[in-house]
Specification:
Layout: H1 11-21, E1 22-27, E2 33-36, H2 41-57, H3 65-80, E3 88-91, H4 100-106, H5 114-142
Antiparallel strand pairs: 1-2, 1-3
Length: 145
């Protein structure tokens, strides 16, 4: 997945990530969630890789049930209040980084946040830097340019 990040993750990168990974965001008073693009194996792999990295390598703790409940109620109050059936499905296709719902999603915590993507990009840069240094040292040892 190419987001075009050069130095740091911006709101346009985060919006592109969310629109690429998720086909819609579901406002449900019991749990705010999203549907992923099942046709893209790359998206599924990316999501699993980032989850594994954050939880097992960076030791980032999962969101508390209380936070998820509060976020769900806040999103329902703002974007889904009085909806028949209790759920509203917002397709991500027409959203931009200026869409109020997407802004609120990016400013939340967890998988959907800009902060989440920013942390993953920082970790990627660290791994890439270490790999580049190892390759450089290896080339020096072998007398290659």
């Amino acid at each position: 997945m190419q987001l075009g990040v050069k130095k740091s993750v911006g709101v346009t990168h985060a919006a592109k990530y969310l629109k690429t990974c998720y086909t819609s965001f579901i406002i449900d008073p019991s749990m705010f969630h999203a549907t992923s693009d099942k046709s893209s194996k790359m998206v599924a792999r990316w999501d699993k890789l980032t989850s594994f990295t954050l939880m097992h390598i960076l030791k980032v703790s999962r969101l508390t049930d209380e936070y998820v409940s509060d976020l769900s109620l806040e999103m329902d109050k703002k974007y889904g209040a009085n909806s028949p059936g209790g759920n509203i499905d917002y397709p991500s296709k027409g959203m931009t980084y200026k869409t109020p719902l997407l802004i609120d999603i990016m400013n939340s915590k967890g998988h959907f946040s800009k902060e989440y993507l920013d942390n993953m990009y920082s970790y990627y840069k660290t791994i890439k830097s270490k790999n580049d240094n190892v390759m450089s040292d290896l080339k020096k040892m072998l007398g290659l340019k």
